[in-house]
Design brief:
Elements: E1 21-23, H1 24-34, E2 41-45, E3 58-59, E4 69-70, E5 74-77, E6 87-97, E7 112-115, E8 127-130, E9 135-136, E10 140-144, E11 153-154, E12 165-167, H2 175-183, E13 188-192, E14 196-202, E15 206-207, E16 218-219, H3 222-233, E17 236-243, H4 247-256, E18 261-265, H5 275-282, E19 286-294, E20 299-304, E21 307-312, H6 316-334, E22 345-348, E23 353-355, E24 360-368, E25 371-374, H7 383-388, E26 391-395, E27 400-402, E28 407-412
Parallel strand pairs: 1-19, 6-7, 14-17, 14-18, 15-16, 18-21, 19-24
Antiparallel strand pairs: 2-13, 3-12, 4-11, 5-7, 5-8, 6-10, 9-10, 19-20, 20-21, 22-28, 23-27, 24-25, 24-26, 26-28
Bound molecules: adenosine monophosphate (AMP) and magnesium ion.
Pathway: Cofactor biosynthesis; molybdopterin biosynthesis
Function: Catalyzes the insertion of molybdate into adenylated molybdopterin with the concomitant release of AMP.
Enzyme class: transferase
Length: 418
Protein backbone atom coordinates (compact mmCIF):
# COMPACT_ATOMS: atom_id res chain seq x y z
CA UNK A 1 0.00 0.00 0.00
CA UNK A 2 1.41 3.40 -0.94
CA UNK A 3 -0.83 6.42 -0.26
CA UNK A 4 0.44 9.83 -1.33
CA UNK A 5 -1.08 12.82 0.46
CA UNK A 6 -2.17 15.91 -1.50
CA UNK A 7 0.38 18.63 -2.35
CA UNK A 8 0.75 21.77 -0.27
CA UNK A 9 -1.13 24.92 -1.25
CA UNK A 10 0.88 27.40 -3.26
CA UNK A 11 0.13 30.15 -0.77
CA UNK A 12 0.96 28.09 2.31
CA UNK A 13 3.76 30.43 3.31
CA UNK A 14 1.98 33.70 2.54
CA UNK A 15 2.18 36.35 5.24
CA UNK A 16 -0.78 38.52 6.18
CA UNK A 17 -0.59 41.93 4.44
CA UNK A 18 1.29 44.66 6.28
CA UNK A 19 3.44 42.26 8.27
CA UNK A 20 7.07 43.30 8.48
CA UNK A 21 8.99 41.78 11.36
CA UNK A 22 7.42 38.49 12.31
CA UNK A 23 7.71 37.39 15.93
CA UNK A 24 9.09 33.86 16.33
CA UNK A 25 5.87 32.52 17.85
CA UNK A 26 3.78 33.88 14.99
CA UNK A 27 6.10 32.35 12.43
CA UNK A 28 5.91 29.02 14.24
CA UNK A 29 2.11 29.20 14.49
CA UNK A 30 1.89 29.79 10.75
CA UNK A 31 4.10 26.82 9.96
CA UNK A 32 2.07 24.69 12.32
CA UNK A 33 -1.15 25.74 10.65
CA UNK A 34 -0.13 25.21 7.08
CA UNK A 35 2.13 22.18 6.89
CA UNK A 36 0.92 18.61 6.76
CA UNK A 37 2.47 15.21 6.03
CA UNK A 38 3.83 14.82 2.49
CA UNK A 39 5.15 11.29 2.93
CA UNK A 40 3.64 7.97 1.91
CA UNK A 41 2.58 5.12 4.23
CA UNK A 42 4.11 1.69 4.40
CA UNK A 43 4.19 -1.22 6.82
CA UNK A 44 7.53 -2.17 8.35
CA UNK A 45 8.59 -5.09 10.54
CA UNK A 46 9.04 -3.95 14.14
CA UNK A 47 12.72 -4.91 13.84
CA UNK A 48 13.31 -2.20 11.21
CA UNK A 49 11.00 0.51 12.50
CA UNK A 50 13.35 2.40 14.85
CA UNK A 51 13.15 6.15 14.34
CA UNK A 52 10.22 5.91 11.90
CA UNK A 53 7.03 7.90 12.41
CA UNK A 54 3.76 6.08 13.11
CA UNK A 55 1.15 6.65 10.40
CA UNK A 56 -1.64 5.28 12.61
CA UNK A 57 -2.13 4.68 16.34
CA UNK A 58 -0.86 1.33 17.62
CA UNK A 59 -3.37 -0.90 19.39
CA UNK A 60 -2.24 -3.79 21.59
CA UNK A 61 -3.18 -7.18 20.15
CA UNK A 62 -2.32 -8.85 23.42
CA UNK A 63 -2.23 -7.78 27.07
CA UNK A 64 1.05 -7.26 28.89
CA UNK A 65 1.52 -9.36 30.85
CA UNK A 66 -0.75 -11.81 29.03
CA UNK A 67 -1.33 -13.90 32.21
CA UNK A 68 -0.96 -13.27 35.95
CA UNK A 69 2.63 -14.20 36.80
CA UNK A 70 5.31 -14.04 39.45
CA UNK A 71 7.74 -11.11 39.58
CA UNK A 72 10.37 -13.08 41.57
CA UNK A 73 11.79 -16.55 42.22
CA UNK A 74 10.07 -17.96 45.32
CA UNK A 75 7.08 -19.95 46.58
CA UNK A 76 3.45 -19.39 45.63
CA UNK A 77 0.18 -20.17 47.39
CA UNK A 78 -3.33 -18.76 47.90
CA UNK A 79 -3.11 -16.14 50.68
CA UNK A 80 -6.69 -16.73 51.88
CA UNK A 81 -6.03 -20.45 52.51
CA UNK A 82 -3.07 -20.14 54.92
CA UNK A 83 -4.73 -18.06 57.64
CA UNK A 84 -3.03 -15.51 59.85
CA UNK A 85 0.14 -16.42 61.75
CA UNK A 86 3.60 -15.14 62.70
CA UNK A 87 5.24 -18.10 60.94
CA UNK A 88 4.09 -20.52 58.27
CA UNK A 89 5.22 -23.96 57.20
CA UNK A 90 3.43 -25.13 54.04
CA UNK A 91 3.77 -28.50 52.33
CA UNK A 92 5.15 -28.22 48.77
CA UNK A 93 3.44 -29.79 45.78
CA UNK A 94 5.60 -31.72 43.32
CA UNK A 95 6.98 -29.85 40.33
CA UNK A 96 7.34 -26.17 39.73
CA UNK A 97 6.10 -23.30 37.56
CA UNK A 98 8.69 -21.64 35.33
CA UNK A 99 8.44 -18.96 32.62
CA UNK A 100 7.11 -20.58 29.49
CA UNK A 101 6.47 -23.89 31.29
CA UNK A 102 3.00 -23.68 32.76
CA UNK A 103 2.17 -25.83 35.78
CA UNK A 104 -0.96 -27.62 34.67
CA UNK A 105 -2.23 -28.87 38.02
CA UNK A 106 -3.96 -26.90 40.78
CA UNK A 107 -2.25 -26.08 44.05
CA UNK A 108 -4.46 -27.28 46.95
CA UNK A 109 -5.43 -24.88 49.75
CA UNK A 110 -2.70 -24.53 52.38
CA UNK A 111 -0.04 -25.80 49.95
CA UNK A 112 2.76 -23.98 48.18
CA UNK A 113 4.65 -24.45 44.90
CA UNK A 114 8.09 -23.50 43.69
CA UNK A 115 7.78 -20.64 41.15
CA UNK A 116 10.40 -18.90 38.97
CA UNK A 117 10.30 -15.30 37.71
CA UNK A 118 7.87 -14.77 34.85
CA UNK A 119 5.99 -18.06 35.41
CA UNK A 120 2.22 -17.86 34.96
CA UNK A 121 0.58 -18.29 38.37
CA UNK A 122 -0.84 -21.84 38.64
CA UNK A 123 -4.46 -22.31 39.63
CA UNK A 124 -4.66 -21.91 43.42
CA UNK A 125 -1.82 -19.33 43.64
CA UNK A 126 -2.28 -15.57 44.09
CA UNK A 127 0.69 -14.66 46.31
CA UNK A 128 4.44 -15.30 46.22
CA UNK A 129 7.08 -15.14 48.97
CA UNK A 130 10.61 -14.30 47.86
CA UNK A 131 13.30 -17.02 47.90
CA UNK A 132 15.46 -15.05 50.30
CA UNK A 133 12.64 -14.97 52.87
CA UNK A 134 12.13 -18.77 52.81
CA UNK A 135 13.72 -21.93 54.20
CA UNK A 136 12.97 -25.27 52.54
CA UNK A 137 13.94 -28.94 52.76
CA UNK A 138 12.29 -29.79 49.44
CA UNK A 139 9.14 -31.15 51.09
CA UNK A 140 7.91 -28.00 52.81
CA UNK A 141 8.64 -24.28 52.84
CA UNK A 142 8.81 -22.03 55.93
CA UNK A 143 8.55 -18.23 56.09
CA UNK A 144 7.41 -15.47 58.43
CA UNK A 145 4.19 -13.48 58.33
CA UNK A 146 2.53 -11.20 57.83
CA UNK A 147 1.80 -12.05 54.21
CA UNK A 148 0.33 -9.38 51.98
CA UNK A 149 -2.13 -11.03 49.52
CA UNK A 150 -0.97 -10.63 45.92
CA UNK A 151 2.58 -9.69 46.84
CA UNK A 152 5.34 -10.31 44.27
CA UNK A 153 2.82 -11.04 41.53
CA UNK A 154 1.77 -9.15 38.42
CA UNK A 155 -1.84 -8.97 37.30
CA UNK A 156 -2.73 -9.87 33.72
CA UNK A 157 -2.86 -6.65 31.70
CA UNK A 158 -1.64 -4.51 34.60
CA UNK A 159 0.75 -2.80 32.19
CA UNK A 160 -1.29 -2.81 28.96
CA UNK A 161 -4.73 -4.27 28.28
CA UNK A 162 -5.62 -6.02 25.03
CA UNK A 163 -7.10 -3.38 22.69
CA UNK A 164 -5.47 -0.45 24.50
CA UNK A 165 -4.01 2.30 22.31
CA UNK A 166 -0.33 2.13 23.17
CA UNK A 167 1.16 4.84 20.91
CA UNK A 168 -0.38 7.70 18.93
CA UNK A 169 -0.08 8.51 15.25
CA UNK A 170 2.90 10.80 14.68
CA UNK A 171 5.08 9.13 17.27
CA UNK A 172 8.76 8.88 16.30
CA UNK A 173 9.49 5.34 17.40
CA UNK A 174 12.04 4.96 20.18
CA UNK A 175 13.82 1.74 21.18
CA UNK A 176 11.40 1.45 24.12
CA UNK A 177 8.42 1.84 21.77
CA UNK A 178 9.65 -1.15 19.76
CA UNK A 179 9.76 -3.23 22.96
CA UNK A 180 6.22 -2.15 23.81
CA UNK A 181 4.92 -2.95 20.33
CA UNK A 182 6.63 -6.34 20.22
CA UNK A 183 5.47 -7.25 23.76
CA UNK A 184 1.88 -6.51 22.86
CA UNK A 185 1.93 -8.78 19.83
CA UNK A 186 2.62 -6.32 16.99
CA UNK A 187 4.94 -7.58 14.27
CA UNK A 188 4.36 -5.00 11.53
CA UNK A 189 3.96 -1.31 12.19
CA UNK A 190 2.21 1.29 9.99
CA UNK A 191 4.84 4.00 9.40
CA UNK A 192 5.56 6.84 7.03
CA UNK A 193 8.35 6.64 4.47
CA UNK A 194 11.30 8.80 5.56
CA UNK A 195 11.16 12.45 4.59
CA UNK A 196 13.90 13.13 2.04
CA UNK A 197 15.43 16.49 2.78
CA UNK A 198 17.85 18.02 0.30
CA UNK A 199 20.62 20.36 1.44
CA UNK A 200 22.03 22.90 -0.97
CA UNK A 201 24.72 25.51 -0.36
CA UNK A 202 24.81 28.68 -2.42
CA UNK A 203 27.32 31.44 -2.92
CA UNK A 204 30.21 32.30 -5.27
CA UNK A 205 32.55 32.56 -2.29
CA UNK A 206 31.72 29.10 -0.95
CA UNK A 207 34.10 26.19 -1.66
CA UNK A 208 33.43 22.54 -0.76
CA UNK A 209 35.75 20.96 1.82
CA UNK A 210 38.83 19.40 0.23
CA UNK A 211 39.18 21.90 -2.62
CA UNK A 212 41.71 24.71 -2.78
CA UNK A 213 40.27 27.98 -1.48
CA UNK A 214 41.51 31.28 -2.89
CA UNK A 215 41.77 34.39 -0.74
CA UNK A 216 38.26 35.68 -0.20
CA UNK A 217 36.72 32.26 -0.47
CA UNK A 218 35.35 30.31 2.50
CA UNK A 219 34.78 26.64 3.06
CA UNK A 220 31.27 25.25 2.98
CA UNK A 221 30.54 24.80 6.66
CA UNK A 222 26.78 24.61 6.34
CA UNK A 223 26.38 21.54 4.16
CA UNK A 224 27.97 18.93 6.47
CA UNK A 225 26.26 20.57 9.45
CA UNK A 226 22.79 20.65 7.92
CA UNK A 227 23.02 17.13 6.45
CA UNK A 228 23.95 15.80 9.84
CA UNK A 229 21.23 17.80 11.61
CA UNK A 230 18.64 16.33 9.26
CA UNK A 231 19.82 12.83 10.06
CA UNK A 232 19.61 13.64 13.78
CA UNK A 233 16.08 14.96 13.30
CA UNK A 234 15.21 11.51 11.95
CA UNK A 235 14.90 12.28 8.25
CA UNK A 236 16.80 11.12 5.17
CA UNK A 237 19.42 13.72 4.19
CA UNK A 238 20.16 14.20 0.48
CA UNK A 239 23.28 16.13 -0.51
CA UNK A 240 22.39 18.54 -3.32
CA UNK A 241 25.90 20.01 -3.39
CA UNK A 242 26.79 23.62 -3.98
CA UNK A 243 25.79 26.16 -6.64
CA UNK A 244 27.33 29.57 -7.33
CA UNK A 245 25.27 32.77 -7.22
CA UNK A 246 23.71 32.01 -10.57
CA UNK A 247 19.99 31.81 -10.96
CA UNK A 248 19.96 29.29 -13.80
CA UNK A 249 22.36 26.96 -12.01
CA UNK A 250 20.18 27.17 -8.92
CA UNK A 251 17.02 26.56 -10.93
CA UNK A 252 18.55 23.52 -12.63
CA UNK A 253 19.66 22.03 -9.32
CA UNK A 254 16.27 22.53 -7.68
CA UNK A 255 14.54 21.04 -10.72
CA UNK A 256 16.68 17.90 -10.65
CA UNK A 257 16.37 17.18 -6.97
CA UNK A 258 14.35 14.13 -5.96
CA UNK A 259 13.41 15.16 -2.47
CA UNK A 260 10.37 16.07 -0.36
CA UNK A 261 11.78 19.31 1.06
CA UNK A 262 14.89 21.43 0.57
CA UNK A 263 17.11 23.41 2.92
CA UNK A 264 19.28 25.97 1.20
CA UNK A 265 21.77 28.23 2.91
CA UNK A 266 22.90 31.64 1.72
CA UNK A 267 21.25 34.02 -0.69
CA UNK A 268 18.07 34.31 1.32
CA UNK A 269 18.01 38.11 1.74
CA UNK A 270 16.77 40.64 -0.76
CA UNK A 271 20.25 41.62 -2.08
CA UNK A 272 21.44 41.48 -5.72
CA UNK A 273 23.16 38.14 -5.22
CA UNK A 274 20.34 36.62 -3.23
CA UNK A 275 19.15 34.22 -5.86
CA UNK A 276 17.33 31.83 -3.60
CA UNK A 277 14.80 34.46 -2.61
CA UNK A 278 14.71 35.88 -6.15
CA UNK A 279 14.00 32.51 -7.70
CA UNK A 280 11.36 31.55 -5.18
CA UNK A 281 9.72 34.93 -5.63
CA UNK A 282 9.53 34.16 -9.36
CA UNK A 283 7.44 31.08 -8.68
CA UNK A 284 5.02 33.31 -6.80
CA UNK A 285 5.29 31.21 -3.70
CA UNK A 286 7.89 32.98 -1.67
CA UNK A 287 7.59 34.65 1.62
CA UNK A 288 10.76 36.38 2.66
CA UNK A 289 10.23 36.30 6.39
CA UNK A 290 12.06 38.85 8.37
CA UNK A 291 11.90 37.13 11.67
CA UNK A 292 12.44 39.05 14.87
CA UNK A 293 15.18 36.70 15.89
CA UNK A 294 18.88 36.87 16.71
CA UNK A 295 20.80 35.20 15.23
CA UNK A 296 18.51 34.38 12.37
CA UNK A 297 16.96 36.61 9.81
CA UNK A 298 16.52 36.41 6.89
CA UNK A 299 14.54 33.25 6.37
CA UNK A 300 12.99 32.67 2.94
CA UNK A 301 10.18 30.17 2.71
CA UNK A 302 8.68 29.02 -0.51
CA UNK A 303 7.52 26.18 -2.67
CA UNK A 304 9.49 24.84 -5.61
CA UNK A 305 7.29 22.61 -7.73
CA UNK A 306 5.20 21.90 -4.69
CA UNK A 307 8.19 21.15 -2.47
CA UNK A 308 8.75 23.36 0.54
CA UNK A 309 12.07 25.21 0.43
CA UNK A 310 13.57 26.67 3.57
CA UNK A 311 16.03 29.36 2.57
CA UNK A 312 18.27 29.59 5.62
CA UNK A 313 20.74 32.39 6.27
CA UNK A 314 24.27 31.76 5.01
CA UNK A 315 25.88 32.49 8.33
CA UNK A 316 26.49 29.08 9.93
CA UNK A 317 25.45 30.16 13.43
CA UNK A 318 22.22 31.66 12.10
CA UNK A 319 21.63 28.66 9.82
CA UNK A 320 22.05 26.35 12.81
CA UNK A 321 19.67 28.28 15.08
CA UNK A 322 17.06 28.68 12.32
CA UNK A 323 17.27 24.95 11.61
CA UNK A 324 16.59 24.10 15.23
CA UNK A 325 13.89 26.70 15.78
CA UNK A 326 12.04 26.59 12.42
CA UNK A 327 13.19 23.83 10.11
CA UNK A 328 13.02 21.13 12.77
CA UNK A 329 9.32 21.54 13.72
CA UNK A 330 8.36 22.20 10.08
CA UNK A 331 10.15 19.07 8.84
CA UNK A 332 8.48 17.07 11.61
CA UNK A 333 5.06 18.09 10.31
CA UNK A 334 6.02 17.21 6.73
CA UNK A 335 7.30 13.84 7.98
CA UNK A 336 4.00 13.06 9.71
CA UNK A 337 5.32 13.57 13.23
CA UNK A 338 3.30 15.90 15.39
CA UNK A 339 4.29 19.39 16.40
CA UNK A 340 6.82 19.38 19.18
CA UNK A 341 7.86 22.32 21.32
CA UNK A 342 11.37 21.65 22.62
CA UNK A 343 11.48 21.21 26.39
CA UNK A 344 13.33 24.02 28.17
CA UNK A 345 14.22 24.50 31.83
CA UNK A 346 14.55 27.59 33.97
CA UNK A 347 18.11 27.57 35.27
CA UNK A 348 20.10 30.28 37.12
CA UNK A 349 22.43 32.22 34.82
CA UNK A 350 26.15 32.70 35.43
CA UNK A 351 26.12 35.81 33.22
CA UNK A 352 24.75 39.34 33.05
CA UNK A 353 23.05 40.73 29.97
CA UNK A 354 20.94 43.66 28.90
CA UNK A 355 18.58 42.52 26.17
CA UNK A 356 16.80 44.88 23.79
CA UNK A 357 13.05 44.56 23.18
CA UNK A 358 11.49 43.48 19.88
CA UNK A 359 13.17 40.21 19.06
CA UNK A 360 13.78 36.73 20.43
CA UNK A 361 17.41 35.89 21.13
CA UNK A 362 19.17 32.55 21.30
CA UNK A 363 22.57 32.32 22.99
CA UNK A 364 24.97 29.42 22.66
CA UNK A 365 24.99 27.92 26.13
CA UNK A 366 25.75 24.95 28.34
CA UNK A 367 25.01 23.74 31.88
CA UNK A 368 27.74 23.50 34.47
CA UNK A 369 27.09 22.80 38.16
CA UNK A 370 23.39 23.54 37.84
CA UNK A 371 23.93 26.97 36.25
CA UNK A 372 23.84 28.00 32.63
CA UNK A 373 26.84 29.72 31.06
CA UNK A 374 26.95 31.34 27.62
CA UNK A 375 29.71 31.48 25.02
CA UNK A 376 32.20 34.27 25.52
CA UNK A 377 31.11 36.01 22.31
CA UNK A 378 27.71 36.50 20.72
CA UNK A 379 29.43 37.10 17.37
CA UNK A 380 27.44 35.22 14.76
CA UNK A 381 30.65 34.34 12.89
CA UNK A 382 31.94 32.25 15.79
CA UNK A 383 31.36 28.69 14.63
CA UNK A 384 33.54 27.42 17.48
CA UNK A 385 30.82 28.63 19.87
CA UNK A 386 28.37 26.20 18.28
CA UNK A 387 30.72 23.32 19.01
CA UNK A 388 31.28 24.61 22.54
CA UNK A 389 27.55 24.82 23.23
CA UNK A 390 25.36 21.99 24.49
CA UNK A 391 22.12 23.93 24.18
CA UNK A 392 20.60 27.37 23.72
CA UNK A 393 19.43 30.02 26.14
CA UNK A 394 16.17 31.46 24.85
CA UNK A 395 15.53 35.07 25.83
CA UNK A 396 11.94 36.30 25.37
CA UNK A 397 10.92 38.93 22.79
CA UNK A 398 10.58 41.66 25.42
CA UNK A 399 13.45 43.62 26.95
CA UNK A 400 15.27 41.87 29.76
CA UNK A 401 17.88 42.76 32.33
CA UNK A 402 19.62 39.57 33.43
CA UNK A 403 21.91 39.42 36.45
CA UNK A 404 23.96 36.40 37.58
CA UNK A 405 21.66 34.03 39.50
CA UNK A 406 18.52 35.07 37.59
CA UNK A 407 16.59 32.16 36.04
CA UNK A 408 16.79 31.92 32.23
CA UNK A 409 15.27 29.37 29.86
CA UNK A 410 17.83 26.75 28.81
CA UNK A 411 16.96 24.33 26.01
CA UNK A 412 19.47 21.46 25.76
CA UNK A 413 20.27 20.27 22.24
CA UNK A 414 18.67 16.96 23.25
CA UNK A 415 15.31 18.73 23.32
CA UNK A 416 15.80 19.42 19.60
CA UNK A 417 16.28 15.73 18.92
CA UNK A 418 20.07 15.97 18.68
P1 LIG B 1 24.38 35.23 2.64
O1 LIG B 1 23.20 34.76 3.44
O2 LIG B 1 24.49 34.58 1.32
O3 LIG B 1 24.40 36.73 2.56
O4 LIG B 1 25.66 34.83 3.49
C1 LIG B 1 25.87 35.34 4.80
C2 LIG B 1 27.27 34.95 5.26
O5 LIG B 1 27.34 33.55 5.41
C3 LIG B 1 28.36 35.34 4.29
O6 LIG B 1 29.46 35.77 5.03
C4 LIG B 1 28.66 34.04 3.57
O7 LIG B 1 29.98 34.01 3.10
C5 LIG B 1 28.43 33.02 4.68
N1 LIG B 1 28.08 31.72 4.12
C6 LIG B 1 27.18 31.48 3.15
N2 LIG B 1 27.10 30.17 2.88
C7 LIG B 1 28.00 29.55 3.70
C8 LIG B 1 28.38 28.19 3.88
N3 LIG B 1 27.81 27.20 3.18
N4 LIG B 1 29.32 27.92 4.81
C9 LIG B 1 29.88 28.93 5.54
N5 LIG B 1 29.55 30.21 5.41
C10 LIG B 1 28.61 30.55 4.49
MG1 LIG C 1 25.56 34.86 -0.51
Amino acid sequence: MCLKPPPLNNDCFALPPGVDWTPVDEALAMLRDRLHPVVARADLPVMSAAGRVLAAPLVARRANPPLPNTAVDGYGFAAATIGDAAEFTLPLVEGRAAAGLAYTGAVPPGHAIRVLTGAALPEGVDTVVLDEDCATDGAAVAFRGPVKPGSNTRRAGEDVGEGDEILPRGRMLTPADLALAAATGLANLPVYTPLRVGVLSTGDEVVPAGQAAAAGQIYDANRPMLLSLIARFGHAPVDLGHVPDDREALRARLDRSEVDAILTSGGASAGDEDHVSALLRETGALTAWRIALKPGRPLALGLWQGKPVFGLPGNPVAAFVCSLVFARPALRLLAGAGWDDPAGYMVPATFAKTKKPGRREYLRARLRDGRVEVFKSEGSGRISGLSWAEGLVELPDAAAEIAPGDPVRYIPFGSFGM
